[in-house]
């Protein structure tokens, strides 16, 4: 492998830090510039180039947050992250209040045997231990997708809120016998957070954040298919003044 | 709220494109030249800025070429980009004018 090929491969590795959409659009032309700027015989990217590429790759990934969206979406995303934290708090609270849960079951079902009570508590704890981390992951996914303005993300929030509501209603329908008080408080807090989130993302102020993301200069829909690889080919437009140095 | 002050790298990129369309490497060498070597753009900074400027509608792709199996894309200023650059240049000129006139009033730089 030649020095240039090694250098190019290493630059490609650095460019992998950038978001996929950005790479699709700019990777090849960035490589041309990086290779043109590199000294002859160089095998490794310079430290300054590495720092510049990594710093800008991080910036490109964080940019949707840096360019703060409408306040309603910003706060909704914050609440989704809070929802993830509350979901994880639910696990801690259920595990920590197992005795309280056991007492609540014995109080409401005095005829249950010890084995039966243990079975109900175990089933409840396992359900929360499995379900809550998944719910927390969904909350973080919703926060990411809504922050970026994906239209489907709002549907996901609505679906998740509907599930949370059904879960809470079902708990109250059972007169909350198999729920410890802390568990119920966390559940109610989650529902309220979900309600405010839904109101925020459905508000008219949020519309612009979600609408028409794909068209515009970044979509580059008019990009012509290139005769790749091959000889020089010029796409029509007025003749430029620049030359390749 | 007023427009944000333009970063120097952005100002230099728009200035480089003000004289005609250029590809990435051309912009880098032009910016180095017009700043007397003071501003040296690197590829990461340049393409992050170009992507943002394109998103803001201040520049656009003029044309694309394939040379030696490599993509060469030329960028040019849009009318909005030209206006924005002119505004920024006027702002800098006004600031510089105030600074120079005050230096003249106080008899020049203190030594």
Describe the structure.
Chain A has 245 residues and is an all-alpha fold. Helix content of chain A is 70%, strand content 0%. Chain A has nine helices and no strands. Chain A is elongated, with a radius of gyration of 27 Å. Chain A starts with a helix and ends in a 35-residue tail after the last helix. The model of chain A is unreliable at 212-245 (pLDDT under 50). Chain B is an alpha+beta fold. Chain B contains four helices and three strands, in the order αβααββα. Chain B has a three-stranded antiparallel β-sheet. In chain B, α1 (8-18) packs across α4. The mean pLDDT of chain B is 89. Chain A binds chain B through residues 22, 25-26, 28-34, 36-37, 48-49, 52-57, 59-60, 216-218, 220, 223-224, 226-238, 240-245, and chain B through 19-26, 28-29, 42-48, 50-51, 54-55, 57, 60-67, 69-74, 76.
Number of helices of chain B: 4
- The spatial strand order of the largest sheet of chain B comes to 1-3-2
Instruction: Work out the helicity level of chain A.
Output: 55-70%
Summing up helix and strand content along with how strands pair, one would put the structural category of chain A as mainly alpha
